[in-house]
Amino acid sequence: MDRRTFLYGSLAGVAAVTVGISVVPTAAPNSTLTDQQSWIIQALVPVVLAGTQSPQQLQQLAPRLVEAISQTIQTLPPNTRAQLDELLGLLDNRVALLALTGSTVPLAQRQPQQLTQILNQWRHHFLDTIKLAYVGLKEPIFAAYWGDPSHWSEFNYQAPSMGSSS
């Protein structure tokens, strides 16, 4: 084995171990969101809900939605919670973020236009896993927003009555 092959092999091995350690969850999923996970979701709220309210209103609403998402996550089955926790963990990991977005800049520090572009790329990606990541980020935000009855009046939606009206 020549020196160059040894060095390339060692570099590849170190990279594989580094990515493997950051990708494989080693603990049970969190019952609540970490600060980093909350920041990621807060950054995505105005992008995912663009058009429902003004960007300033969505920024103000984001912390309340993060709390609602955290409560919703606690009701999910353990397997689904683990997958969502893994996804948010990957988005907090710089190596995984580089692979998923092409940059190591944290999502919470990016401009809304950049986040919109990333989500659109994921939405139309050729890998189903990336499309699933897109849905995994979008759906909890939609559920938290539209699950709040105070937002229903914007579209004149009336909740169905549960009792008989006879």
Automatic annotation (TrEMBL):
Keywords of the record: Membrane, Signal, Transmembrane, Transmembrane helix
Highest taxon, organism lineage: Bacteria
Protein source organism: Ferrimonas lipolytica
Transmembrane spans: 7-28
Protein name: Twin-arginine translocation signal domain-containing protein
